[in-house]
Design brief:
Layout (H helix, E strand, L loop, with lengths): L1 E2 L8 E2 L10 E14 L2 E14 L3 E5 L6 H9 L6 E6 L2 E2 L5 H11 E5 L10 H11 L4 H14 L15 H13 L5 E5 L7 H18 L2 E5 L3 H4 L4 E6 L2 E4 L5 E2 L1
InterPro entries: AAA+_ATPase, ABC_transporter-like_ATP-bd, ABC_transporter-like_CS, ABC_transpr_LolD-like, MacB-like_ATP-bd, P-loop_NTPase
Keywords: ATP-binding, Nucleotide-binding, Transport
GO cellular component, one term: plasma membrane
């Protein structure tokens, strides 16, 4: 993936987009993060800032090792920035205690990973129901929502199967159902189509976008694929630790 130099005004530098705080699903302000490598510190993020609005699907592009996964971990409160602030749905994530972060993630964030991360000892329906059980919903509501998500991803017939009996595309559809079953405000997807063939990629991507939009949530989608990125409402590029926003014509394979 490379970025062509766009025409005048096509690229907006970070922070140039008007940020309506009341409309912000995610607001990142001057995030910095470095990791120690021997006697030296390797900077991954250098004052990264952006706003993702409610109901918006945003694709995040960047080279391998550019810090895309680090950025997702900071948004989710899995990692802590050296400096800067993360606000998700009006909640200052960087100020929450560890128990508060756990409750916040369980209620408000859904995760989709490249390698599915389904629990191999649980059946499909049990994997989907897990976020609802962690949020202590009534058993009847858990069953109703689980059946509804199985229908949404068209895998009702696989409800009692174990993950290793499913194809890669089917496993990712179950992972999407699990990520969305508790109706999160924000879905973080880290290369969700990177381990799939073209047909499964198209199916999974359409499913994830349509279900997130139906629920009114926001989606931040990390990808290496410009074709996948163009399906989003907006593009962000992470390069040299900073976020910028090109138009879609500036992205090439």
């Amino acid at each position: 993936m490379e970025t062509r130099a766009p025409g005048p005004g096509a690229r907006r530098q970070q922070g140039s987009r008007p940020a309506d705080v009341a409309d912000a699903a995610v607001r990142l302000t001057d995030l910095s993060r470095s990791y120690r490598e021997g006697e030296r510190f390797h900077p991954v993020l250098r004052g990264a800032s952006t706003t993702i609005h409610q109901g918006e699907c945003v694709a995040l592009l960047g080279r391998s090792g550019s810090g895309k996964s680090t950025l997702l971990n900071l948004i989710a409160g899995i990692d802590t920035p050296d400096a800067g602030e993360v606000v998700v749905g009006g909640v200052p994530v960087t100020r929450l205690t560890e128990p508060g972060l756990t409750r916040f993630r369980r209620r408000h964030i859904g995760f989709v990973y490249q390698f599915f991360n389904l629990l191999p000892t649980l059946r499909v329906r049990e994997n989907i129901a897990l976020p609802l059980e962690l949020n202590h919903l009534p058993s009847g509501e858990i069953e109703r929502r689980t059946r509804s998500m199985l229908a949404a991803v068209e895998l009702e017939s696989r409800a009692d199967a174990f993950p290793d009996r499913l194809s890669g595309g089917e496993q990712q559809r179950i992972a999407i159902a699990r990520a969305l079953v508790h109706r999160p405000d924000l879905v973080l997807a880290d290369e969700p189509t990177g381990n799939l063939d073209r047909h499964s990629c198209d199916l999974v991507l359409e499913l994830m976008l349509s279900l997130t939009r139906q629920q009114g949530g926001s989606l931040l989608l990390v990808t290496h694929s410009p074709a996948v990125a163009r399906r989003a409402d907006r593009l962000l590029v992470l390069e040299e630790g900073r976020l910028s926003e090109p138009d879609s014509s500036a992205i090439t394979v």
